[in-house]
Amino acid sequence: MGRTIASITQTWQQEEAALKRFQRALRKEDQLLLDELLVLSRLHLAEASYASNLYPLDMYLIAILLEVYKQLKSLQKESIPEGADPSIKLDSGKEARFLTLLNETLAVLAPEAPPTVELLEEAAEPRASAAYTAFEEAP
Question: Is the dihedral of CA 67, 68, 73, 76 positive or negative?
């Protein structure tokens, strides 16, 4: 008996065949780049066979994205200046930039400053309705 579903390699070939018309519509230099991306996607055929719950094109794109991201990370590591501390994160400035943008956005959305002093004063005063219970230690 044969297979009831196509293998991942057959599925990949079907997806590539479906992209041929799109590829022919591209400029020559873009066609070459697309060919390179398709080669990158084939590097993860074995892993893609375990993701049968996803659509084939989704796995196709994830495989391409993974390879391109690996190349990006490799280039980032190569671009670390000589003598720089390798323990410093490559994206260490992103957190500070994110916080700055977040604060700017919050300032635009809520132009008045929150009454932090009043909140502290309210917290310092005990509530009259609060009751404290002495707990006994368990035997």
Answer: positive
Q: Return the closest-CA partner of residue 15 out of 50, 62, 76.
A: 62
pTM of the model as a whole? 0.50
Q: How far is CA 125 from the centre of its chain?
A: 45
Of 117 and 24, more confident: 24
With bands split at pLDDT 50, 70 and 90, how would you rate the model's confidence at 29? very high
Neighbours of 130 (CB within 10 A): 6
pLDDT at position 119 = 46
Q: How far apart are CA 123 and CA 127, in angstroms?
A: 9
The CA distance from 53 to 8, in Å, is 12
Widest pairwise Cα distance in the chain: 83
**Which residue has tokens 């707990």?**
135
